[in-house]
Amino acid sequence: MECVILAAGEGKRMRPLTTSRPKVMLPLANRPMLEHLMDSAIKAGITDFIFVVGYHEEAVRQYFGDGSEFGASIRYAVQRSQRGTADALNAVKGLVSDDFLLLNGDMVINSEDISGLSGAVSPCMAVFKSSHPQDYGIITTEGNRITGIFEKTSEPKGDLINAGAYLLEPGIFSILSDLELSERGEFELTDALMGYVRTGNLTIYNLSEWSDVGEPWNLLDANASMLENLEGNIEGTVEDFVVLKGAVSLGKGSTIRSGTYIEGPCVIGDNCTVGPHAYIRGATSIGDNCHVGHSSELKNSVILPDTKIPHFNYIGDSVIGSKCNFGAGSKIANLRHDKRDIMAGDRNTKRRKFGAVVGDGVLFGINSSVNPGTIIGSGAAIAPCTLVEGKIADNTKYGR
Ligand code: TTP
């Protein structure tokens, strides 16, 4: 069976992390989220993929190639402008001739569920019982048949959400061409499925676990869930007087220097230097070529490659882009004094602990302090001793 993965979206909610890369290439446990999804499908016995690419498509093509390095075969279809999920699926018209799986590229789903969904009767939608259905499109059912599909609303009619994974038949392509733009100006796959709903033909498959990765703070939960199964593996050098607790993975050419204390799960990429005297707490992923130096503490964070956190820094519950430099003593706070949920602009992260989202190439002057929920655009430069808060545009000089 072929598996179509939608990976063309712009990922606006993930900005600034998606300024220079597609959302599906953002790392969980140091590997692109799309690779984890493909791995789950491969474990379910699926080896033929069609990736629908568009926004920064070169990054996906370069990393995955024809799929042979991953034990898979990958073909590509291109969605030139991002006009919605139905439009993205339409890009594979003529490429599939039998029932096929369709997966959104920005989610975590396990291989047992992919296997179960691929064995269902098409057309079928994977659904997940959510404790916060108001954040998603939901469905109503009678038995295992879908009776309604509804957009996100503050008063959802149920708790079964559309998980963005389907088993479909090629007949769907004739429906796609007749769709009209939705209220938010997109061609929506859910509109295409309404015909099946009206005839009572669309069934559900209940997922055992699922998470979507649409907002920057979702990366922290998805990263932590990937690291739950981490097996410790040390390929680099660990100097004397280093304490490693829990699962720690260290890449080739990396060194953990004396006095460092790491509580896994923690994955450290290739060619990194950690310490002396650094403290890293789980669940943290540190990309290749990073430096975490003396008296720097990291906790529950995702750090993209080539970032330097060299002296007396604290970073908690944050997502940090690549090629950033933290001046000595610069820190990111992750908890409000009143312990309320951290807001990132007008978006509620629904987390009591959240630090910041930092784009690529951000430079922090010494002793700068970042408030919880701050979003710092790529290429921003923060002046020394500055209090940083709110949303900072790309390439801004912030502070005096
Ligand atoms: P969305 O999360 O709805 O859209 P997005 O990824 O562009 O993100 P944002 O809302 O933050 O801008 O997309 C769900 C999936 O569908 C995701 O895997 C990307 C994919 N997609 C496309 O391939 N093409 C599109 O035109 C859209 C809108 C989404």
UniProtKB/TrEMBL annotation:
Key words, A-Z: Acyltransferase, Multifunctional enzyme, Nucleotidyltransferase, Transferase
The protein's name in its UniProt record: Bifunctional protein GlmU
Ranges where the Nucleotidyl transferase domain occurs: 4-227
Residue intervals of the Mannose-1-phosphate guanyltransferase C-terminal domain: 262-334
Catalytic reactions of this protein: N-acetyl-alpha-D-glucosamine 1-phosphate + UTP + H(+) = UDP-N-acetyl-alpha-D-glucosamine + diphosphate; alpha-D-glucosamine 1-phosphate + acetyl-CoA = N-acetyl-alpha-D-glucosamine 1-phosphate + CoA + H(+)
Pathway: Nucleotide-sugar biosynthesis; UDP-N-acetyl-alpha-D-glucosamine biosynthesis; N-acetyl-alpha-D-glucosamine 1-phosphate from alpha-D-glucosamine 6-phosphate (route II): step 2/2; Nucleotide-sugar biosynthesis; UDP-N-acetyl-alpha-D-glucosamine biosynthesis; UDP-N-acetyl-alpha-D-glucosamine from N-acetyl-alpha-D-glucosamine 1-phosphate: step 1/1
Family: In the N-terminal section; belongs to the N-acetylglucosamine-1-phosphate uridyltransferase family.
Organism: Methanoplanus endosymbiosus
Lineage: superkingdom: Archaea
Source taxonomy: Archaea, Methanobacteriati, Methanobacteriota, Stenosarchaea group, Methanomicrobia
Single GO term (MF): glucosamine-1-phosphate N-acetyltransferase activity
